Amino acid sequence: xxxxxxxxxxxxxxxxxxxxxxxxxxxxxxxxxxxxxxxxxxxxxxxxxxxxxxxxxxxxxxxxxxxxxxxxxxxxxxxxxxxxxxxxxxxxxxxxxxxxxxxxxxxxxxxxxxxxxxxxxxxxxxxxxxxxxxxxxxxxxxxxxxxxxxxxxxxxxxxxxxxxxxxxxxxxxxxxxxxxxxxxxxxxxxxxxxxxxxxxxxxxxxxxxxxxxxxxxxxxxxxxxxxxxxxxxxxxxxxxxxxxxxxxxxxxxxxxxxxxxxxxxxxxxxxxxxxxxxxxxxxxxxxxxxxxxxxxxxxxxxxxxxxxxxxxxxxxxxx
Length: 319
Fold this sequence. Notes:
Elements: H1 4-18, E1 25-26, H2 27-36, H3 43-55, E2 60-63, E3 69-72, H4 79-91, H5 97-108, H6 113-121, H7 135-149, E4 151-160, E5 166-168, E6 175-185, E7 188-195, E8 200-205, E9 209-218, H8 228-237, E10 243-251, H9 255-262, E11 267-272, E12 275-283, H10 286-294, E13 299-303, H11 305-317
Helix pairs in contact: 1-3, 4-5
């Protein structure tokens, strides 16, 4: 015999799996479902169970009519939120194909089967763009543990040679890192922390970490007041280089590009009917100058002379 608590759980599961705003159910439907599971129930007991679910905070919506209809409201996540999360999993270059599928299945379980089927209809996973093994995921899990327990890790780091074989940096040198925080940039995960070898804060790509091991050594903490956001901007937007206040002359159509790169608070003012100036503080480097070059003249460096000279020198070397 099924007790009251079990019956309520069956009703909750049925409402979550089988109902939404476009697919409500009735007490008669619920009784039929319970009967198929070997549970006897009556109108009054089911209605009391639904009231208890509502009192417990479950978003059960009732369309009052001659025969009341019930469905689960927004639930834990709304459809647009689920869609965005599923899209992020699809696009991830960090998750393997198998893990992406498993994670998407878990996300789809948070909504009704009707909405899940709707989300599945637009689902496409490109296996070729996914990593072939779980090494990066395992490294991320170990790094998470290290951050949580404030311990150092040791690992080797690799790149790829022209034959697509792994090339371990500096003859398989073992790096020691006190990890502080993960950073996501361009669909890649990085870990930021203090590197004993470099004697400074540095980032490593998580999917390039090999043979990571958790040590018992206490991690070197981040300096008090360390600006993680500013560091990430310097590394991932313009990379490491001398900081300069640079004036850019931009065509009016490039305002969206300037805001995307430097934020809505960027200092701009009108230059002429077709252009505006942007005063930005950047870490001058090849990456910054390459970004300007990629704008094909729609964004040009005006000042200071130091930036202009460095940019010209880079162009000369490319000839």
